[in-house]
């Protein structure tokens, strides 16, 4: 049982970090469908840098720098060029999926997975036991959840950020630089997605393969909606989706040959649909209006 719970945490960590990224973006008024692309770019850059330098710090640093630049481009497109935020997000994810696959061939002359010589530190690795396999970013996810809650709920910057998303016109009237706050939120999202990508490629398998994210960025986006755009709720939803992924993996081992593999692989995504649908039904029965996905209002 403990081993399965640890597997759930391992599977949930990249989704968890990306969901916190989507939380900050959505708090500022931006629906971030580019989480998948940022995770992929972070995973590839982290692995490639680790192979070239042999340094975990350099790998994470490079992934953060690349994602900050991509997030800045995202902000320029939706703010200055008035591009549709949903299309830009999807374009970022699809471009990253193709670009990382091409980069595998261009830089490493292979379409197979590339292996990293180093991995993320494991704080409890020397103690043994089931918790020894957890990377430092799994423990950091708990701290980042609390930090996100404190920033959003207890600081002036966090309150202004929420105002940018809930009523940008009123925020501008009060003198809040909405565009700058949105840029800051996207930069935070880029950093967190870089950590999520590093967790994917340097924690568990220590390698990068084409489309390694496998939709986790979209699960993170769903976790933001399911969690009510609140740090604790988003984190719980991310762990739920991670548990569904872990259950799918375990089912492949336990029911190999009994259940079709396609059925097992679809479980986490089916759980996403069921969870969000249940949330909408419950809110309607309570007389509440479910959240509506709208374009960013400038």
Automatic annotation (TrEMBL):
Coiled coil: none annotated. CDD domains: TM_PBP1_transp_TpRbsC_like. Keywords: Cell membrane, Membrane, Transmembrane, Transmembrane helix. Pfam families: BPD_transp_2. InterPro entries: ABC_transp_permease. It is a multi-pass membrane protein. GO terms for cellular component: plasma membrane. GO terms for molecular function: transmembrane transporter activity. The chain crosses the membrane at residues 49-78, 85-108, 128-152, 218-243, 263-282. It is found in: Cell membrane. The keyword Ribonucleoprotein does not apply. The keyword Phosphoprotein does not apply. PANTHER family: GUANOSINE ABC TRANSPORTER PERMEASE PROTEIN NUPQ (PTHR43370:SF1), SUGAR ABC TRANSPORTER INTEGRAL MEMBRANE PROTEIN-RELATED (PTHR43370). This is Nucleoside ABC transporter membrane protein. It comes from Actinomadura mexicana.
């Amino acid at each position: 049982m403990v081993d399965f719970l640890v597997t759930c945490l391992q599977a949930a960590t990249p989704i968890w970090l990306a969901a916190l990224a989507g939380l900050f973006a959505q708090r500022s008024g931006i629906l971030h469908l580019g989480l998948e692309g940022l995770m992929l770019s972070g995973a590839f850059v982290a692995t490639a840098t680790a192979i070239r330098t042999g340094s975990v710090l350099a790998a994470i640093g490079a992934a953060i720098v690349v994602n900050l630049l991509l997030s800045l481009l995202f902000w320029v497109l939706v703010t200055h060029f008035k591009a549709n935020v949903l299309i830009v997000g999807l374009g970022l994810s699809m471009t990253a999926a193709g670009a990382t696959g091409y980069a595998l061939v261009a830089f490493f002359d292979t379409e197979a997975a590339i292996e990293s010589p180093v991995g993320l530190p494991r704080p409890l690795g020397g103690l043994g036991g089931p918790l020894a396999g957890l990377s430092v970013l799994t423990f950091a996810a708990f701290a980042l959840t609390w930090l996100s809650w404190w920033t959003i709920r207890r600081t002036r910057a966090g309150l202004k950020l929420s105002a940018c998303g809930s009523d940008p016109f009123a925020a501008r009237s009060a003198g809040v630089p909405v565009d700058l706050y949105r840029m800051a939120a996207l930069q935070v999202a880029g950093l967190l997605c870089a950590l999520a990508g590093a967790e994917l490629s340097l924690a568990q398998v220590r390698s990068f393969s084409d489309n390694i994210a496998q939709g986790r960025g979209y699960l993170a986006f769903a976790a933001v909606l399911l969690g009510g755009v609140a740090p604790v709720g988003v984190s719980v939803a991310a762990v739920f989706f991670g548990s569904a992924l872990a259950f799918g993996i375990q089912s492949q081992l336990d029911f190999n040959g009994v259940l079709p593999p396609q059925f097992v692989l679809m479980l986490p995504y089916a759980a996403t649909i069921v969870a969000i649908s249940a949330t909408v039904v419950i809110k309607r029965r309570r007389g509440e209006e479910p959240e509506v996905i709208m374009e960013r209002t400038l």
